[in-house]
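pipeline stage [seq->struct] | target=Protein PIN-LIKES 2 | organism=Senna tora | residues=440
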Amino acid sequence: MKSSGEDIRTAIVPLLKLLSLTIIGLLLAHPKLQMIPRATFKLLSKLVFALFLPCLIFTELGESITFKNFVDWWFIPVNVLVSTALGCLLGLLVVVICRPPPRFNRFTVIMTGFGNTGNLSIALVGSLCHSKDNPFGKHCHSSGVAYVSLSQWVAVILVYTLVYHMMEPPMEYYEVVDEGTEIEEIRSVNDISRPLLVEAEWPGIEDKETEHSKTPFIARIFKSISGISPATIPDLNIPPESSGNSSPRSIRCLAEPRVVRRIRIVAEQTPIRYILQPPTIASLLAIIIGSVPQLKALFFGDDAPILFITDSLEILAGAMVPSVMLMLGGMLAEGPDESTLGLRTTIGIIVARLLVLPILGIGIVALSDKLNFLVENDPMFIFVLLLQYTTPSAILLGAIASLRGYAVSEASAILFWQHVFALFSLSLYIVIYFKLLLYI
């Protein structure tokens, strides 16, 4: 049994490795040194998104997963939903206590509720498993990456559906003029240059904008139900409910209800198609191949006929963790943007997300273990569940904020400060988690 000092060392050293990589990235991207231009870090983020991360997910998840495992791991996506729900409740509490500007109420809830279940978690698992004295066994890395990859599915679906619509600009800060064009009363978000922090997990976001991306689309559609004339709600492209010479009776019978019609329009504007990005496609392929023994035998195992392809992907996957941390350093080198969120609300979000939520997570995971929801004798399974409550807000939220034109600089600022303070909170809680793994 290890002493307390050895436990602390085992927990802290992997974080120091990641910190060293981050500092290198920060120095390379620092504006005063300018050793590497900003465009290079953008290119690196695209390589991570389209190549390194998918290769890592496919090689590790595909090797670890079987159909039985896929069923046994059911609590991983459920835990993502639970952690998000608890985070959003804490966000509501932050709104009540800290009283941010009214236009940032939804933003406060979002930034507290939705954590980083992707790149940062994979980097933490990779660094922990790189140590020979890790407490997770010889399959530490493959099982850890597999668990994190599975949790990404739910998180990505939530971001591209629920968060996308929650991030729409508040309607009261827009003015509709006679020509049907919109003027934002405060300032134009198009004048804000997109920092690296909001593009890291969604490269090329500027190509995804639509005519309604930066408008209070849902608010205007559903406000039209409450008696406002459709003429005052421009550019919604809502089709007429009836046409032709149909009789009034047939119109009443066949016409789509107004509320249903508007829900359908909102669903059509939801960017659900963006879920099928390279990392999620790699996860899907890995689950399919890993669950079918005949297919799995082609890619994995010492006698696999096309093992050379898997080995090539594994070589590329090795660049994932250092690239992510160098990129994070490059993002932090830009510093925080100016924010009108307020110091009290910023501190409230950081405390709720990084300090309070992990305590609730310990209770949830311990209760789940008592109810036999967890995989038996698998400390990595428990660790990944706990990690979902511990990471800072998802960097992808910054991309959604940029796409919707809502709280862009505030998102950049809060993500910056969360990732700075996460160094200390992660160090604290990883030490606690290592202690708890002896008892759970």
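stage status: PASS
auto-comment: The chain has 18 helices and two strands. The CA atoms of residues 77 and 421 lie 27 Å apart.
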